[in-house]
Amino acid sequence: MTQEPNPRSQPAAASHETAPEATPLSPRKAMVGVAVVLLILVVLAAVGILRRIHAGTVLAQRTNSLAAPTVSVAPAKAGAPVETLVLPGNVTAFTDSPIYARTDGYLDRWYYDIGARVKKGALLAVISTPELDKQVAQAESDLATAQATANNARIQADRYSGLVKSDAVSQQDTDTFVNQAAATASTVKSAEANLQRLREMQSFEKVYAPFDGVVTARAVDTGQLISSGSGQSAGTELFHMQALQTLRVYTNVPQLFSQTMKHGTKVAISFPEYPGKSFEGTLVRTADAIDPVSRTLLVEIDLDNRSGQLMPGSQAEVHFKAPSASSAYIVPASALIFRRQGMQVATVTQGNEGTVAHLIPVLIGEDDGATVQIVSGLNPGDKVIQDPPDSLIDGEKVTLESSQGSAFGAGGL
Predict the structure, then answer these.
(1) Is residue 195 part of a domain?
(2) CATH no. for residue 181?
(3) CA torsion angle for 186, 190, 196, 201 (degrees, to 10)?
(4) Measured between alpha carbons, how far is 369 from 308 in angstroms, rounded to an integer?
(5) Which of 11, 108, 158, 345 is the most exposed place for a label (fewest CB within 10 A)?
């Protein structure tokens, strides 16, 4: 039987091994390690900086793209030649007059109410003026006194003028009586003028119709206190009258058609209360000046209304015959821009700098509410912004919502 050796019997020195000595790091390797670490740090920093620069560039591009308004466009469609120009017209009475009192007093009686047709010179009302009547009586007495005094002074002057020839009276006394006669004669004239003024004021107690027409308003009633004056003078308006035998129709014609407005031209006028019916008016005058704000010419058309069918204050449609050579382009009404420079539409062009908006001055023809005819300012193929933002300016970059908008439709309105 073999006996295993006892480990405890081994020498103590054999149980401990000596650790190997560490090799010292050379300076070259240390520098390489530091360089590698610095290189890694530089790379990481460069990557971070590049990422930030890229993010800033993307943010700027995104901001610029969002700053440009997004618009939808559609090409301008050529419409039918403009043969009839339809414009809104305002109808007024040929003569429109408020009637005020020229004297103070109380309304004693009125004779015509609203809707009454009266002739020129018809008695409309009577005003009671007791104070004025007393003033007239006093002026008559003052005139009689002045006349008596003047007559006496004249007699004295004649008597002294005869006596001075025989040296019976002095020349000085004669001159005194002659001058007194002249002064009293002037007093008589003054009293006569005052009496005439009061009598004329008294004549205004009766209010008469100044022309043939219709009473459209009555603002007073029996017993009401009447004050003389008119308008800002705080006078009392008694009646309002309008002459309706002939009506005036005013309309504003675009500058493009201003040269076709000739005096004596017959013009068709229609009213919504008479569908399918047309009335003929005559162009009688124009303002002979273009309004610098609206670029339109004010035109007056007289319309015969002896039948009494039409009423002032109503809205009319005036149909002018325009030159058939004029062409038009159809755009939606929302494409119009109203600014102090006049009526405009916005178009877009595409180039190296992107899509740019341009504001174009235009003149419109017919307008049906949804679409309008542009008779001047647009060219074939122009891309019109359908609903431009209010802040849009000329030369501003925009973003197109769709390169091909829906067509407005061609043809006349």
Answers:
(1) yes
(2) 1.10.287.470
(3) 170
(4) 31
(5) 11
Q: Examine the fold and report which residue of 300, 321, 342 is the final residue of a domain before the chain moves on.
A: 321
* Residues 278, 230 contacting (CB under 8 angstroms): no
- How far apart are the C-alpha atoms of 323 and 327, rounded to whole Å? 9
Least confident of 24-33, 36-45, 145-154: 24-33
CATH value at residue 358: 2.40.420.20
Query: For the domain that residue 288 is a member of, what is the CATH number?
Result: 2.40.30.170
Domain hosting 188: range is 130-204
Q: Which residues pair with 97 in a beta bridge?
A: 241
Amino acid type, 37: V
pLDDT digits (tens, 9 = 90+) for 50-75: 888 877 776 666 655 556 778 888 88
Q: What is the mean pLDDT of the chain?
A: 82
- This prediction has a pTM of 0.56
Are 112 and 124 spatial neighbours (Cβ–Cβ below 8 Å)?
A: yes
| For the chain, the helix, strand and coil percentages under 3-state DSSP, each to the nearest 5 | 30, 35, 35
SS3 43: helix
| Final residue in a domain of this structure, among 156, 184, 204 | 204
307 and 250 inside one domain: yes
Compute the distance between CA of residue 278 and CA of residue 216 in angstroms, rounded to an integer: 26
Looking at the domain assignment, is residue 341 inside a domain? yes
Cα separation, 219 vs 79, whole angstroms: 53
Q: Are residues 333 and 353 in the same domain?
A: yes
Beta strand ranges found along 255-295 (DSSP E): 266-270, 278-290
* 148 and 193 within one domain: yes
Q: Which two tokens stand for residue 128?
A: 């009671």
Q: CA-CA distance, 137 to 398, in Å (whole number)?
A: 86
156, 174, 179 from 167: Cα distances, Å: 16, 11, 19
User: Would you call 207 helix, strand, or coil by DSSP?
Assistant: strand
Rounded Cα distance, 78 and 381, in Å: 9
Flag the least confident range among 180-184, 277-281, 291-295, 367-371: 367-371
Of residues 327, 409, 413, the one with CA closest to residue 74: 409
Contact of 358 with 346, CB cutoff 8 Å:
yes
Residue 2's pLDDT is 45
Question: Among 141, 178, 135, 127, which residue's Cα sits nearest to residue 156?
Answer: 178
pLDDT value at residue 254: 86
Asked whether the beta carbons of 377 and 363 are under 8 A apart, the reply is yes
Kindly give, in sequence order, each residue whose CB lies less than 8 Å from that of residue 136, ignoring residues fewer than 6 positions away: 195, 198, 199, 202
